[in-house]
Amino acid sequence: MLVKELSIRIQKEARDGKFQVATTIVFCLSISFLVLVLGMIINDHFKKFVLYEDLSLSSLNAFPPLFSSSLSSPHPCIEQCNSSKTINGLKEWSSPSDLWHSMTDEELMWRASMVPRIVEYPFNRTPKVAFLFLTRGRLPLAPLWEMFFKGHQGLFSIYLHTLPEFTYEPSELSVFYKRRIPSKLVQWGRATMIDAERRLLANALLDFTNERFVLLSETCIPLFNFSTIYNYLLNSNQSFLSTFDDPRPIGRGRYNTRMGPTITLSDWRKGSQWFEANRELALAIVSDVTYYPVFRNHCMPPCYMDEHYLPTLVTKVCPNLTSNRTVTWTDWSGGGSHPTMFKRNDVTIGFLDKIRNGFNCTYNGEMSSICHLFARKFHPNTLLPLVKIAPKLLGFNP
After folding, report:
1. Can you give the three-state secondary structure of the chain, one letter per residue?
2. What is the pTM of this model?
3. What is the pLDDT of residues 356-390, one digit of tens each?
């Protein structure tokens, strides 16, 4: 009896074991089939992805699209890469078209002070004159300047330093369109005036095609046509920045003994704020970290940095780079802290012609009657007579 029950029990367990084995086999086969199907799907998608990338990168647009997504439009990644190459290309880096940036003044001066050690440029470089306008807002004499620049694209650059809150943008057809640089508040007679001048120079130095740099105000006018001024500046072997030793109270009398020993009384110079500089001198100005802090800390009204900083700096570091005169004529004969402001009735052919040819000076070691290329200060109401006179007297394009 015991043997019979044991036999029945063994047969039952054998049947149960076979069932479990069969169940295990079926389960394993199902899992294997699922894995196989999943692998085929993944393999198929991988092949499509690789083929799609190959076609996009090889620009094989001659083949018809293989998938639902069209191959005629570039892959987003390719579009982004091409865009980056355009922005970071040599042309955009060496001659930026967009003047707006987020650099601090310290970063800007550092960037602008860079000089390539390879002398020859790896591109066709046509030297340009950079016109640096220091203005509060709109240029009241802009139509006259538009006439001056007309027809000379590629030979000049324009930079506008305005009040920070000034956002007016002229027509796209204007030479002043999008020529504002990131600006800060400027106070007359303060260090902020020099900050603005250095800011203008630094932004212009970012363009390696700029060779000459002229600082102008909103009241300045050109005295000759563009070709005459361009050739005069490009062919000059020196810059035009006046510097002289003035023994009077408004000269040496403004020297602060706390500037020593970095700047001594014998170093102290005075000159016109309105300068013209070649690239070498412009680089020296934006690279100065020795004398500028001394002036900023110790030259305050009645000491005016715009009359003393650059003349003293040039005397200290590169006196051979300037012809020691300005090319911007100003009438100080009336005395006082500001020069004469000319109105509508002052503007005549005789008046302008006297400024143009009524002086003698040295140009490249020889005597010349052309000493001033620009003049100031001209009231906004002088625009109409100036525009009428310019085509005939100055040879502007109407």
Report:
1. CHHHHHHHHHHHHHHHHHHHHHHHHHHHHHHHHHHHHHHHHHHHHHHHHHHHHHHHHHCCCCCCCCCCCCCCCCCHHHHHHHHHHHHCCHHHHHCCCCCCCCCCHHHHHHHHCCCCCCCCCCCCCCCEEEEEEECCCCCCCHHHHHHHHCCCCCCEEEEEECCCCCCCCCCCCCCCCCCECCCCCCCCCCHHHHHHHHHHHHHHHCCCCEEEEEEEECCCEECCCHHHHHHHHHCCCCEECCCECCCCCCCHHHCCHHHCCCCCHHHCCECCCCCEEEHHHHHHHHCCCCCHHHHHHHCCCCCCHHHHHHHHHHHHHCHHHECCCCCEEECCCCCCCCCCCECHHHCCHHHHHHHHHCCCEEECCEEECCCCCEEECECHHHHHHHHHHHHHHCCCCC
2. 0.77
3. 999 999 999 999 999 999 999 999 999 999 999 99
